[in-house]
Design a protein that fits this description.
217 residues
């Protein structure tokens, strides 16, 4: 008789089976163990219960709009110092959900292109013409992208922005990826700021961290 297929806990000689002998290491049968192993295997981050609900609702919106939707928080600062040029910096943390239900954390940071380097062919030290003025803004961000999957947002993009802030503030930025299929993303920031107005351009670097699918069970 094969003791591993028997109904008892012994191995035939009165000795209790060690978990390593039975092939049961606890991870697959413990609560949440399988999910954690699957997450590590898929290089994704498990969503919270609230995030699962938000992602489900966002998927409906993404399918209706036929666009990837983004939301999160971020801050930006722009300065136009005259003569048609300016500088800009931005940092943001968002969740992106595409029409197919895939979701990911999208983490972006940008610095003035003259500081970020010119690794991307065709990117100029000052990317866009800029109005004179200064704006500092932080708050909630909402955006849309024609990327068919959040993974397409990873990498380097060229970003143009503008903001208007004096206590309450609003800002917008528009970015184009430098890698095929060159997705385009637009964001609006609503929050608080100071300094009046400003607009400029930057090189933006984006990291994408997949969120484990809630459809797979």
């Amino acid at each position: 008789m094969d003791c591993k297929n028997g109904s008892g806990n012994g191995n035939g000689d009165g000795r209790r089976l060690d978990p390593s002998e039975s092939g049961d290491h606890g991870g697959g049968n413990s609560p949440g163990g399988g999910d954690k192993k699957a997450s590590l295997a898929n290089n994704c981050v498990p969503p919270t219960k609230v995030q699962k609900i938000a992602i489900s609702l966002a998927t409906v919106s993404a399918q209706f709009l036929r666009e990837t939707v983004l939301w999160g928080i971020g801050g930006s600062a722009g300065a136009g110092v005259g003569k048609g040029w300016g500088i800009y910096g931005n940092v943001s943390a968002q969740i992106a959900v595409s029409p197919n239900g895939n979701a990911a954390y999208v983490l972006s940071i940008s610095a003035p292109a003259i500081l970020a380097g010119q690794d991307t062919p065709g990117v100029l030290p000052y990317i866009v013409p800029s109005t004179k003025g200064f704006g500092l803004l932080g708050g909630s961000q909402f955006g849309l992208s024609n990327a068919i999957d959040p993974s397409q947002l990873a990498g380097t993009s060229v970003d143009a922005s503008g903001s208007l802030a004096a206590g309450l503030g609003i800002g917008g930025d528009f970015s184009v990826s430098t890698s095929a299929p060159y997705p385009v993303t637009g964001n609006v920031t609503l929050g608080f700021g100071l300094g009046g107005r400003g607009s400029a351009g930057a090189v933006t670097n984006t990291a994408v961290i997949p969120i484990c699918s809630s459809h797979g069970g």
